Amino acid sequence: MTQADEGTLPSTAGVIEKIVLKNFMCHDHLEVALGPQLNFIIGNNGSGKSAILTGLSVGLGSKASNTNRGKSLQNLIKRGRTTSRVTITLANVGHEAYMPELYGNKVTVERVLKKEGVAGYFLKAENGKTVSTKKADLDNMLHKYGIAIDNPMAFLSQDNARGFITSSSDAQKYKFYEIGSRIFQNKMDLVETGSNNREMFSKVATLAAAVEDAEKKRSKARKTYEQFKEGKNLKKERLLVEAKMRWAEVAKFREKRAEILQKDTDLDEDITHIDQQTAQLDQQLAEFDTNKEAAAQAAQTAEEAEVLFRSQCEGVREQTAEAKTELIKIQDTIKDAESNTKALAQEIAKQERLLKVEQKRIDAINGGSLEEMQRRLDAAESELREVTDAGRAAQEQLNEIDETQSAAVRAKGDAKKKAEEEIGRLKETKRHMLSTQTDPLNAFGPKIHQVMRAIRDTRFRNKPIGPLGLHVSVKDEYKDFSDIFSTVLTKTLESFLVTNSDDEKTLNAILRRHNMRSGVIVRRDDRFDYLSGMARSHRTFVDALDFDNEYVKLTMIDLNNIEKFVISKDRDRAKEILQGPDRNVMSVFSLFNHHSGQRSSINDTGAFRIDPVHYLSEFKMNRSAGLSLSAVKRLELEITAAVEAAKTANDDYERLTNQIRHEKEILASKDRDSRKRQKPLKERIYELKNKLSENADMAAIESLTESIQDLQNQTTIQRTDLADLQGELAKAQASYQALGESLKQSQSQLLRLRAESDSKRLDLAEFDQMKALILGQRAHYEKSKQKRVDKKAQYQEFVVRLAEEIVTLEAVARETMPAEQCPLMTGDTEQTLGARLNQIIQVIESLENRLGGSFEAAQQRLTECEARYENLKTSFDDFHSIHKRVDDDVMFRTLDLKETIENWTNTINQSFKLSLHQRGFDGELVFDHKKQLLQMHVSKDGSSNFRAVDSLSGGEKSFTQIALLLAIWQPMRAKIRGLDEFDVFMDSVNRKMAMKMMLLTLRKQQKSQTIFITPQDIADVEGINGPDVHIHRIADPKRVNNSENH
């Protein structure tokens, strides 16, 4: 069961579960089990019902006089018996339990009454073991449970109940109210405390006068004592100064000895240092021998590597020579091929000359027109080829333009589009910058205002902080780095900060509902010292940013390490900073251009790297401190430059498209002209070929033509071979060049190995030189050590002589006064002490001439006066402090009582009204605390026309009194309440209504247990059969030996 459940259920700790009466009043043995909330004990008159309430009061420690059953507890023992026993069992479960580890879940209180002797208490645990027999422990337990056994309004016996129900005067009602609420007792306590405090004030005044008189007598005694003391002190001082002079001489010799000893110690340190240096040199010599062997091995290894690589170079050199030979061979073959090609060309020229001669002969036979036709045919075919080639070239150029120029057009178009987009981005940045100036929340999106309203209207354990960017701004001198700060920290600046997981869930729900993706950081407001891990030698993000919330600042340091992020306007110094002595530098951020910056760092492998930081358009920090003119001006310059760039890109795009269009039109015109000229040329060629086929026998010409064709074919083959040879030559040249480069590199590597080998040999030579140098240093240290050893012997001899003189001087000084009784102070020298001694002697002689009397008597008088003053002063301070505390306590208790009376008055009045409303009545209680009167005004019809209670019927008046009782019970918060025969003066109608009202009211007070005693039947009372009501019917007892009290 949770604590919340316990607050809505009937109380368990302190509830009476059972009462057993043995030989008590009229009962031999009576056992009654009680419920935790409402209990009704019914029975006929004389059945002993009231004995139960009396037993509860007596069993829990009440006096006999409080029960209205006699003045002595012996009167409660049943007649004929010598002892009586009341046993009460209380529940002890829950957070209000009393020492549950000792008593368990139940506490049993047993009180034994005796005719002879003293009554006793027994407090028993759940297991029946007696834990205590002290009344004080019982009182502590009842106080813990909240049981007020002596409050007459908590346990109303027959007489008290009758007196309360039938009370008619306003003064009687007020008296019941004061007694029940214990206000009367509090008032009496305050009156008694005030009276005691006034008596204490009188004592304080008397003590003050005595203290003043004692102070005067003490001052007079001190003055006399000081006059006697001055002379005696001077004699003591004279002896002291004389002793100090002797000890000063001892100190001088001691200082001299200490000085020599310090020099001796310094020599020891020098010798130790020399020994350490010598040991280090010996170690170096040993290391030199070892390192010399390693150097010799390294030199040998380097020399072997040089020899090995030299042989490899010889191999490369041989391969290069072979490649050169092959190259020369191919070049010779090419020369032969070129010579053959030239011979074939000469033969072709010879055959063509013969062909011309034969052609002339045939032309002569045919009238000389064949050559002319052939010339015209060749010219026509040549022109056709030119026209066709021109058309083909124009078409190819058109295709090339479509393939190549289109890419250039797209590139220019992309540049134009990019420039236009850049203009839009810059204008949006300017608009965003100006909007965040008027309202910083605009930087976090259009829905941020709705989110902030939702956060403000939602209940959190601790209100979230955020967005964090609202609490961060850039200092004026670092405005140039604003875009870097905003871009690097953007995720954190957009986030909100909460201190617990419950607030995180609530905030995430709000963000999801408004479709915002801001992060939520969960971090307690723990403060820590970040300065030890902060980069000190350079400006960091922490130095450049202003935080209006220390919690936000520490969060960003904790999450982003901004105390380790350094800023630098000089990009070239980033590597120097990172490799510098400050190990706390994690990254260096620098400016690059208007669109980006750069981040420099050292990666895990120790390599230096640079990463770009592309600026975001949205600025996520607080601009409420004002935009710098340079930032706005810079943005406007960027917009102007972007407009110019866009204009240039557009001009380039237009110029290129116009140029391409013009070139395509020219080429298309050439293609059309080519197709137009090809047709007549083809017709003319066809006609000329037909005429040539009709001429004389061409056998000789054909033979010569075939011979020329054969020679041309040979030439073609020769040229093909020549081309192949040229390819082989190119490969051979490439191979030769590669081998030459390899040879060059090998020679370079050989030179490096040779230099390394030479260096190793030089290192080996340097070892011998360094060893000689170290041996020289070692000899120097040995000589220096011997000098100090000789000096140390001289010092030790001098120290022995000083020690002997010091012993003699100490003996003389000690006879005068031990050193601990005359410590030397700063400035005590033989000169100053001698001057003081002469001065003391003169003063002593003067005092001895004018003083007389007894120093001891003056001292005794002063001691007595001081003791009396201190005693009186202590008493005065104690009484004055107590008086002040009591005075303050009375004032605060008076104010507290006044406030308590006011609160209780309001509570009782409200409860009284609610009880009357259950019957349809209305009313009010009017308290006159000054006159100590309590008036009840009641309206039967619920109107505001109140009238006095005396005008009501007897039953209505009793009902109203019961309402008053319930109202007084309301603020009492008593754990257990009892009411005996409250309904004897009520008619059946008012009794039922009163009973219903009490059930409804007391059911709400689940922390209290109530016991009603009535002789009337309650079966017809509405709500009496509820599970929280326990009814106990008491049978009539046998009255053979009844006690005197029934």
Would you give an account of this structure?
- The structure is a single chain.
- The chain is of the alpha/beta class and 1046 residues long.
- Among the domains are: 13-155 and 975-1033, 3-Layer(aba) Sandwich (Rossmann fold), CATH 3.40.50.300; 426-561 and 615-638, no CATH class.
- Helix content is 63%, strand content 11%.
- It has a six-stranded antiparallel sheet with strand order 2-1-4-5-6-7.
- The longest helix is centred in the first third of the chain and has 183 residues, at 183-365.
- The radius of gyration is 62 Å and the shape is flat.
- It starts with a helix and ends in a 12-residue tail after the last strand.
- The model is unreliable at 1-8, 625-630 and 1040-1046 (pLDDT under 50).
Secondary structure: elements and pairs:
Layout (H helix, E strand, L loop, with lengths): L2 H4 L9 E9 L2 E7 L4 E6 L5 H11 L23 E9 L8 H4 L2 E9 L5 E5 L5 E3 L2 H11 L9 E2 L1 H9 L3 H11 L2 H183 L4 H69 L9 H10 L14 E3 L7 H7 L1 H5 L1 E3 L2 H13 L6 E3 L18 H4 E3 L2 H11 L4 E3 L6 H5 L8 E5 L4 E7 L5 E7 L14 H64 L6 H118 L13 H21 L4 H63 L4 E7 L4 E7 L7 E2 L5 H19 L3 E5 L7 H16 L5 E6 L14 E6 L12
Parallel strand pairs: 3-21, 3-22, 8-20, 10-11, 13-14, 20-21
Antiparallel strand pairs: 1-2, 1-4, 4-5, 5-6, 6-7, 9-12, 14-15, 15-16, 17-18, 18-19
Helix pairs in contact: 7-17, 7-18, 7-19, 8-16, 19-20, 20-21
Main location: nucleus
Organism: Babjeviella inositovora NRRL Y-12698
GO molecular function, one term: damaged DNA binding
